[in-house]
């Protein structure tokens, strides 16, 4: 199993890179299709921006030309952004051993385009490395961020939750509980999941003794006989809102619910690491 996990971990960044490449191609196409500017323009030129010493993590990277990399990073104050790391593939590059996933970094960059230029990256430290199944869980977190967090959309609270989740995984805390907490935080912070304590059909507080379904666009409501969505108890919803997964039933029902909600908000796009985790760990 360890060998399988190691193989999967190597393949994950390549799978993730498709999203960033598609975005870059789409951006280039839009620029080529854009009409030429009139001779006289009242548009104020954008100033070149420079950011220094920003906390961040590499989510994934892919080759750019012969010696460079495009890295997708998640930063505390600027959200998810793309950076070109020039010369990072050269054997003597200082960046070669720094731009690793799950390592806290201090990042500096400049530029005003969709893909900025990395100026410096320094390892900060403070987190234990992820190993074995925890490493695959980390790639799962990164894939969720790449596919569900828009570029240039800051989420400082989600960034802090990501750091805490990596720390929990590194200390071998129960992966199913840690992942449920992060999934819930991700959907809340990106604005696609509401309050689990209010029934949307009655506008009354969720009753721990009743059975509900969660409408992905509206929130919890009383379950009907014809519903095909996952059924959860009111207690499970209240437990999830409190981040309390000590109850075995809450663990089971929240797993099914989060799979359903994530599938909806991903628009049917598959999660490569999720399927590997299901096969290996039955999360």
Automatic annotation (TrEMBL):
The keyword DNA damage applies. Gene3D superfamilies: Nucleic acid-binding proteins, Recombination protein O, C-terminal domain. SUPFAM superfamilies: ArfGap/RecO-like zinc finger, Nucleic acid-binding proteins. Residues 53-125 form the DNA replication/recombination mediator RecO N-terminal domain. Pfam families: RecO_C (PF02565), RecO_N (PF11967). Keywords: DNA damage, DNA recombination, DNA repair. Signal peptide: none annotated. Belongs to the RecO family. Involved in DNA repair and RecF pathway recombination. This is DNA repair protein RecO. The lineage of its organism: Bacteria, Pseudomonadati, Pseudomonadota, Betaproteobacteria, Burkholderiales.
């Amino acid at each position: 199993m360890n060998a399988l996990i190691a193989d999967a971990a190597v393949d994950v960044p390549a799978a993730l890179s498709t999203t960033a490449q598609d975005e870059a191609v789409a951006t280039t196409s839009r620029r080529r299709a854009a009409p030429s500017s009139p001779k006289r323009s009242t548009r104020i030129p954008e100033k070149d921006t420079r950011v220094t010493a920003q906390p961040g993590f590499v989510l994934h990277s892919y080759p750019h030309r012969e010696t460079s990399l495009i890295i997708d990073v998640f930063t505390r104050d600027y959200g998810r952004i793309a950076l070109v790391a020039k010369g990072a593939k050269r054997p003597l590059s200082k960046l070669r051993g720094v731009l690793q996933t799950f390592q806290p970094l201090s990042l500096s960059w400049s530029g005003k385009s969709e893909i900025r230029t990395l100026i410096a990256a320094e390892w900060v430290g403070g987190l234990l490395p992820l190993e074995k199944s925890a490493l695959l869980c980390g790639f799962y977190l990164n894939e969720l961020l790449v596919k569900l967090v828009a570029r240039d959309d800051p989420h400082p609270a989600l960034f802090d939750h990501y750091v805490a989740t990596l720390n929990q995984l590194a200390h071998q805390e129960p992966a199913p509980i840690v992942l449920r907490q992060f999934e819930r935080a991700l959907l809340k912070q990106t604005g696609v999941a509401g309050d689990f304590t209010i029934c949307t059909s009655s506008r009354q507080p969720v009753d721990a003794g009743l059975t509900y379904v969660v409408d992905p666009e509206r929130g919890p409501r009383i379950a009907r006989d014809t519903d095909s969505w996952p059924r959860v108890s009111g207690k499970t919803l209240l437990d999830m809102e409190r981040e309390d997964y000590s109850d075995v039933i809450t663990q089971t029902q929240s797993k099914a619910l989060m799979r359903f909600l994530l599938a909806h908000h991903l628009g049917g796009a598959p999660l490569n690491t999720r399927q590997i985790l299901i096969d290996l760990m039955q999360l």
